[in-house]
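User: Quick one: structure for sequence A, then sequence B.

Assistant: Sequence A:
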Amino acid sequence: MQDGSAGPVPDAAEPGLPGFDACAAALADCRYLLVMPVPWHQARDGSVWLDELWHRDLMRHLDYLGDLTVLAPRLPLGDRAGMVQVQAGPGLKFRALPWGQSTAAGLLSAPATWLASLRAVRGADIVHSGVAGWPFPPGLFVNPLAVLLRKPMVIVVESAFWRLSGPGPHSRKARLRAGVVERFARWSVRKAALAVFTHEGYRSSLGRGSEAQSIVTPASWIDAEDVLKPTVAEAAWAAKPAQVRVLLAARLTEGKGVAVLLDALSGAAAQGLPVAVDVIGDGPLRPAVAKAAAQLGPDRLNLLDPVPYGPPFLGLLGRYHAALVPSITDEQPRILFDAAARAVPVLASDTEGHRGLVEPGVNGWLFAPGDPAALLAALQRAAGAPEALRQMGLTARTWAEGRTHQAMHLARARRLAKLWRAVRG
C-alpha cells in the first residue's frame, strides 16, 4: 500500500490543513445536490429510510455540508431489515426520481426524470453526480442540465461496471451500452469542475489528468475503531490455526473472479494440493460455488452464509490468514481496506483497482487476473508461508490507521471547500 497513491492520510500527518469544522464553515451557504442511482425508501407516515451502508455514508456528508439535497429514486418502504431511518430536516432534504426497473420503463419515465432533474439542478449551487446507473444513469439527465445551467459539477467515479469484462461473447446490446456510457463518462469528466476517482486508473482512462481539477480518494469504509490495536492484532495471529485458510468475500459474479477460483480449486484437487478457501456472499454464481463445495469437500472449499457488514463481518475476516480478491474488472473493492484493518494480507489480482493499494511482499501478493493457474500458484504460496502472511498482515494494519471512511470524506471536503471559494470569487 504505497503512500504516494494509496489515498487519504491521517490528520496528524497533515498539519495546517482544515478539518471538518473549517470545511463546514466554508460550505455553510452552499446548496449541494447529491444525485444517486440508489433508491431511498419512504414509509406510509412519510419517514425516510436508507440501506444501512448508504445511511452511514450519507451521514458523513453532513460533517461538512449544511444544505444537502438528495436526488434519487424513491420506493415505498417494505421490509425494514437492514434499513435505517433518516432524520430529514432543513439541512437534509430528499427529492424523488422516477424508478425504472427495465430499459422500457426507463424510457417511459424519461420525461418525468428530466423534469425532476431540472427542478433539482435549478435549486442547487453545486451538483454532485456520476456516470453509472441502471437502466439509465441519473447523470444522463442531470449532467447536461448542470452544464446548460452553468452549475459547477462534481463527478464521482467509484466503479465502471459498464465496461465489459471476461472472455465474452458480449451481446451487441451490451457492447453498444458500454460504448455509449464510456463516451458519456468521458464527456462528464471533462465538463466537471472537480472529478473524484477511487483509483488512478479511472483518472487516466477517463481523461482528467490534472490534479487541480481531480482527486483520487480510494474507497475505504473502515472507521478508526475497526482497526485492530497492535497487541490485539498480534493476539489474533497467535490464535489462528496452523493450516492456512483464506476468505473470498464478494458478490458471487463473474466479475469478482469466482469462476476463476472454481477452476483453480479444481486444479488443486486434481493435483492433491493442500489449498483451503472459504467463500461468503450472494450472487448468481452462488449455486455453482455450492456445487463445487459439495464436490471438493469442506477441507478445500466451504460456502458460508452471509453476515452483515460491520463488526460481524470484520470479526469473521480477522480469523483468516489472507483475503482472496481475484476480480477481473478494474473496480476497487472495499475488502482491501477491511482486510488491512484486521491485520489480514490480501492475495489480489493485478488489476488497476488493486495495484495502487497492494505492494507485493509488504501487505499482500498479486497474481495475473483471469488466470486460474496464477491464482492457484498464489494460494499454494500462501499455504506454505504463514509467517510471511503474518508479517504482511501486521504491516497492513499499520497502514490502515487513518485510511478511514472519515479521512476519505475529509479529503473530499477540503477540495469542495476550495472549489466553493473559487466559485464565489
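Sequence B:
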Amino acid sequence: MSQWRYSTICPELNRSVDFDEELRKILQDYGMKGWELVQVLQPRNDTRYHLVFKTERPLYPSLEPAKH
C-alpha cells in the first residue's frame, strides 16, 4: 500500500505578468521534484488559490546511518 506526503502552498501570483505562465512555472517546479497537483482550492473570502500536492513516501526509511 502506498503512503503519501502532502504539501499545500498559497502562491502570490504576480498579476502584472501572464497568470498562466506563472502557474506553469510553479507546476513545472513541483512536478520536477516528484510532486503531483491533486487539488486547487479557493476558500470563501480568500482571493488566493491553495494548491495541494502529493508525493509518494517510501514505505521503508533508508537503512543507511545518518551522515554527520
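The two ends are 32 Å apart (CA to CA). Residues 36 and 53 are 5 Å apart (CA to CA).

User: Thanks, that's what I needed.
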